[in-house]
Amino acid sequence: MSAPFLHVENLGIQFGPTDNPLKAVDGISFDLAAGETLAVVGESGSGKSVTALALTRLLATPPARYVSGKIEFEGRNMLTIPEDELRKVRGKQIAYIFQEPSSSLNPVFTIGFQIQEAIELHRPEVRDVRGEIVCALERVGIRQPAERLGDYPHQLSGGMQQRVMIAMALACQPKLLVADEPTTALDVTIQKQIMDLLKELKQTSNMTVLLITHNFGLVADFADRVLVMFRGRIVESGPTAEVLRNPQHPYTRALIECVPKLGQKQRRLKVIDYAGIE
Questions:
Q1: What span, in angstroms and rounded, lies between the C-alpha atoms of 103 and 225?
Q2: β-pairing, 6-15 with 208-213?
Q3: N or C of the chain: less Cβ packing under 10 Å?
Q4: How remote is the C-alpha of 245 from its chain's centroid?
């Protein structure tokens, strides 16, 4: 049996004093197969983003401490490989889309320059860099892409900024795309457009995707499998349809019940009752 594309085993990450640490990630394990889409779902503070950042050691140490486990990407442990090798993985093999495009894009450089910088760093073999940038922007639905190369981030809407972030990530032709709350800062109409775009790009390129989200409503038509995180631990996992249809853990059920439904008469969203969850 071949090794999984991504293998996380007993990963433990802590913050704060060693005698009274905050266990942000508490011994989690999971696998991700090539071409698969895995969603990690949980509320803010459950450890989702810490897990995502740990894949390429993007957490500053200190304040973070990797206290246990391993993260094997194509057979190499990301927690132990040298920094120079790790820089070749970041962006080129594992690329990220973050939840705040306005914070992720550099406000003093044009979008064309920022995508160009990524291509030149990770794909030095590309001869027609400008053409590659135009193709990347066109692929994510930016109209008249050649005319937008000189635009600065503040000249774009939030949805267009996120499309630029996706274009930048895909221009490096990564093997794994980590989408960390990619629609949080966007209105619901733009959220759907971005998720539809990611779904289309995944289908056309057979890309492997790790989606980080707090919203079960986003994963039903997108993810093959779901992991549910609660206070640094995985409390439930399984095929998406199965988890949505028959959730086993009370926290999973509470998260699903928080998703607004068309025709729902209750005026307020359900409040999660943490008593008895653990």
A1: 30
A2: unpaired
A3: N
A4: 24
pTM of the full predicted structure?
0.88
CA distance 5 to 32: 6
- What tens digit of pLDDT does each residue of 237-265 get? 999 999 999 999 988 888 888 776 665 56
- Report how far residue 157's alpha carbon sits from residue 187's, in angstroms, rounded to the nearest whole number: 11
Exposure b/e, 22-34, CB count within 10 A at least 16 = b:
ebbbbbbebebee
- DSSP type of residue 187: -
Strand-pairing partners, residue 6, are 32, 73
Strand order in the sheet with 94-97: 94-97, 176-180, 208-213, 37-41, 225-230, 233-239
Q: Which two tokens stand for residue 88?
A: 């070749």
Distance separating alpha carbons of residues 163 and 137, to the nearest angstrom:
8
Cα–Cα distance, 111 to 103 (Å, whole number): 13
Strands 65-73 and 225-230: unpaired
